[in-house]
Amino acid sequence: MEDQLKQEIASRRTFAIISHPDAGKTTMTEKLLFFGGAIRDAGTVKGKKSGKFATSDWMEIEKQRGISVTSSVLQFDFDGKRVNILDTPGHEDFSEDTYRTLMAVDSAVMMIDSAKGIEPQTIKLFKVCRMRGIPIFTFINKLDRQGREPLELMEELEEVLGIESYAMNWPIGMGKEFMGIYDRHNRRVELARTEGDGRYLEVGKDGDLAQSHSIQETSYYQQALEDVMLLDEAGNDFDEERVRRGELTPVFFGSALTNFGVQTFLETYLQFAPAPQPRNTADGGSVNPYDDEFTGFIFKIQANMNPAHRDRIAFVRIVSGEFDRGMQVTVPRIPKTFKVSQSTQFLADDRETVNMAVAGDIIGLYDTGNYQIGDTITGGKANFAFEPLPQFTPELFVKVSPKNVMKSKHFHKGILQLVQEGAIQYYKTLHTEEVILGAVGQLQFEVFEHRMKNEYNSEVVIQHIGQKVARWIENEGDVKESMTGPRAMLVKDRYENLVFLFENDFALRWFQDKHPDIRLYSLL
Ligand code: G4P
């Protein structure tokens, strides 16, 4: 591989921001893009509230709800690095896509609201990152508001998530009294309010300021110094290797809204975040990003971006080599070779045609129904597959049937394709073979209903059966039908495996107490 291409690949930093809704992910993304020069004002990018999507020709649902149904990719250059941020939708638009997006990144940034601490969606997304062993960087946000004590937040991080942490910086006061941060990593104090004395104050060897400043006299500064001393003595050491292995999360404090601490975060993050990483193949090998041949995998398919053309976009994470527009790509699963003449990359919300992309980048390929989620793509003849994408344990379930029984053929065809594509999970009841669909987020059902009608001409009746705790069974042979009941429903998944759908955690525990010999497990 040529040196120039190697350098290109080594400059890529591909990550997602994981957070509970309202922690400040959109605000942070805007500020990051602002630093990257991708937008002129640190204004709205996603147009969540400005209604920018009203002019987009994306799915009807997106228009109605003013949100992006599937994750998009934002790209900018900073400090000699090319940064790819993959959006992970929250709120009701949370779906399996959100989880799968985390399969395509090399690191994650976890945003936490300093007043709320660790919230449920953060835990779910964190678990998926942890499973992959990717580095996680934490940004504790909204320091311009009164929040919880920083030491308490650090403790919660370690206890609830079970990850060790290292505070890269420490807040000096908060809310109205937020004076800045004590930057342990860069050995300086960054002032929130600057009045002609510069933004940074150097910290000397003893931890005191190199030059005198009025901030030193404040109780907030003294408190910060005390806390930092405590962390120096009793806290974890900074260990780059452990950060890379995802065992230690560097923690930053700041305020995305007032743009405080964001640049320092970005600079430090880029210093330690990994360049594109190798990926495992299904046969136990691995593919290195610097391998000459272009390879990648599809982690998401976005349908109907233009309803007039019924087109779909398959999002590919490039694993190795270089992608050029016009190249031939092979999908070994089918196996079929296509000439790629149209590909897109996302910069803010403008679709741009991409001519060249390298390992670490995400490209969107126009799809007329050939690709599936999880597909491996190569530029050569190699016949191999990347490790399959994991299946996630759904939490929401519905029963679904065709409105018009005369059209059940369309109904079954539509379901089969949408299930294969990974849009939704398929289950059926044991004897009556009623169709049950599972999802991790409500929006998946809405998208399903919409697509069935528009793409497969099949109107469906959806009956909500609510939240369930799904468990697969190691020793299926020992399961008896007498073990089932209204609180423990037994169904089959698309691979004919038996699955218990428990009413809630209590029903699950009750079942396990009663039948300790049945070995249950969950997917991710
Ligand atoms: P999300 O994408 O994670 O859902 O969060 P988003 O950035 O939309 O932020 C949620 C709310 O929190 C917004 O307020 C936003 O302005 C606010 N916020 C984000 N970062 C900070 C921060 O550092 N400090 C403070 N004080 N607030 C912050 P909103 O009232 O819901 O919306 P808006 O009308 O202000 O846009």
UniProtKB/TrEMBL annotation:
Residues 10-277 form the Tr-type G domain. It is found in: Cytoplasm. Keywords: Cytoplasm, GTP-binding, Nucleotide-binding, Protein biosynthesis. Its main location: cytoplasm. Signal peptide: none annotated. The keyword Transmembrane helix does not apply. GO terms for molecular function: GTP binding; GTPase activity; translation release factor activity, codon nonspecific; translation release factor activity, codon specific. It holds the Pfam family GTP_EFTU. GO terms for cellular component: cytosol. GTP binds at residues 19-26, 87-91, 141-144. GO terms for biological process: regulation of translational termination. InterPro entries: EF-G-like_DII, EFG_III/V, G_TR_CS, P-loop_NTPase, PrfC, RF3_C, RF3_dom_3_sf, RF3_GTP-bd. Increases the formation of ribosomal termination complexes and stimulates activities of RF-1 and RF-2. It binds guanine nucleotides and has strong preference for UGA stop codons. It may interact directly with the ribosome. The stimulation of RF-1 and RF-2 is significantly reduced by GTP and GDP, but not by GMP. Belongs to the TRAFAC class translation factor GTPase superfamily. Classic translation factor GTPase family. PrfC subfamily. PANTHER family: PEPTIDE CHAIN RELEASE FACTOR RF3. This is Peptide chain release factor 3. It comes from Bhargavaea cecembensis DSE10. The lineage of its organism: Bacteria, Bacillati, Bacillota, Bacilli, Bacillales.
